[in-house]
Amino acid sequence: MENKKGSLKEKAKAQLAILRVILPLLPFISRVILLHVLGKSETSKYLDLKSVLLVSILQRLCDPPQNKLQSITKLQALTTRDVPVKGRIWVSHVAAVVPPDTSIRDVLIAAIEGTKRDLVPGSADCRIPEIVPVEAEWTGYREDASREAKPPAVTEEEKYLRMMKGCKSPVTVLYFHGGAYYLMDPASHRPAVKNISKLTGGRVYSVRYRLAPQHPFPSALLDALVSYFTLLYPPPGSVHEAVPPENIVFGGDSAGGNLSLALLQTLLEIRRQNQRITWFHEDRHVPLPGGVTAISPWLDVVQGMPSWKRNQTWDYLPPPNVLDRKDPPCAAWPSNPPRRHVFIDDDYLLHPMASLTLSKSWKGAPPVYLTCGWECLADEGKWLVKKLSHDGVPVVFEEYEAMPHVFAFILTKRPEAARCLAGLTNFMKVAVENPAKIASRYTTIKARTCEEVKIDVDSLSPHSQDDLRKMAYMMIGTDSMPSAPIAKL
Ligand SMILES: *[C@@H]1O[C@H](CO)[C@@H](O)[C@H](O)[C@H]1NC(C)=O
Ligand SMILES: *[C@@H]1O[C@H](CO)[C@@H](O)[C@H](O)[C@H]1NC(C)=O
Ligand SMILES: CC(=O)N[C@H]1CO[C@H](CO)[C@@H](O)[C@@H]1O
Fold this sequence. Notes:
- This is Alpha/Beta hydrolase protein.
- Residues 173-408 form the Alpha/beta hydrolase fold-3 domain.
- Belongs to the 'GDXG' lipolytic enzyme family.
- The structure is a single chain.
- Residues 479-489 have low confidence and may be disordered.
- This protein is of the alpha/beta class.
- It folds into two domains: 2-70, no CATH class; 89-476, Rossmann fold (3-Layer(aba) Sandwich), CATH 3.40.50.1820.
- The protein has helices at residues 2-22, 26-37, 49-62, 72-79, 103-116, 156-166, 190-200, 219-232, 255-272, 307-310, 378-390, 415-433, 465-476, and strands at residues 89-95, 135-141, 172-176, 203-208, 248-252, 277-279, 282-284, 291-295, 368-372, 395-400, 441-445, 452-454.
- Helix 2 (26-37) packs antiparallel against helix 3 and helix 5 (103-116) packs across helix 9.
């Protein structure tokens, strides 16, 4: 009884909070509704009213007027709140054990320096982050639970074991949540991750990597690499057994899609350098995973490509805002010493590991799945797909007409969202269970009908790598174009 009262109170509080956000937007909302009903907005031809409203409201919330801007610390507190686990989901909290040697970090730094060598002139030294016990949530689908079920009062290990009993497939997704590298948490992404485990029949290792601005590049990348090694070579005391690399698929949305691909590029470079990693006193080789996936990945760190302008109508992301932010000052920002970008030092803005569009080569990568909408980040995703394909990587690309950034987790009731999740999770299953069956495919998926239209991979992007560098330099506002040799598409 007490409990029920408590949860009703919580509900009322949450509803009040939503009202407080929505009320001031009422005039704006009425206008959106009117334009939609009259068929006068571009989006009305493709989307239903509810989706249009949701996208427009998100658009306003992501780009508030200067006097309504929240500090980074406040936004972080809001988006990393822990929420109680509930319903058809297993969550088992774990933390990676810190290895006794620093080899994993040394090899990462060597890889970062290695990818830089012939692309970026100058000699900025990469920051060296601490190795920490990276937390993660083992997540699985809890089929026999009710929608309101609470987790049983058992140990985290027991939850893991019960989760494993429900796993029907060896698919193990190493997942990185989105949030522009400074927001969100595995807890905010549980509903999405639960659906991924349900649809693959496998399990997800959803990583609580360190966030910027407190932990800038390459902290998150080190946490990603440590998490991968923890799966492959479980440290003493782990609840899981060693996961064969071919059963692992990387996944992530937005900044997490970036991290998933940045981890792949790191592994490729470690392998190009013939490096091995000493991990808990054993000399370990560095294998590639079975596949890599990315939903609306953020790849160009300075947001310089044309879709940032062209697709504003369709997306809720604010206009380019990562450089020289105007947030009200707080404990986290501006950083000390100050820098221009939330998660990367100024010297590293054009590093190929920071802007993956500037990476040298993806040769030898396992199959990649990439999806995007008509969104601000469309151009960088499409550019990368073309590059991957030219480098001989099997790629499955799905572009969704009229859809915004990471729509599959936001417009969840739309047929396009269901189609996208099916596309993603099918790829994950096939990459693990039948990799020989993956062949490159490039498709546009039409709004409403989900009709599929093939696209020619070469039509995906008109830009050369040189164009990309010029765009990036323009965004940064420097005219000292370096004359280093550039990998050509
Ligand atoms: C997960 O899938 C269910 C249908 O099985 C759907 O109702 C729900 O909206 C989805 N959630 C997310 C976040 O994709
Ligand atoms: C992608 O991830 C890498 C590794 O953490 C980071 O250096 C880079 O800046 C990220 N890029 C974008 C565009 O988020
Ligand atoms: C409606 C529209 O212009 N959509 C565009 C969004 O950006 C992508 C990538 O540049 C284009 O292919 C779409 O046509």
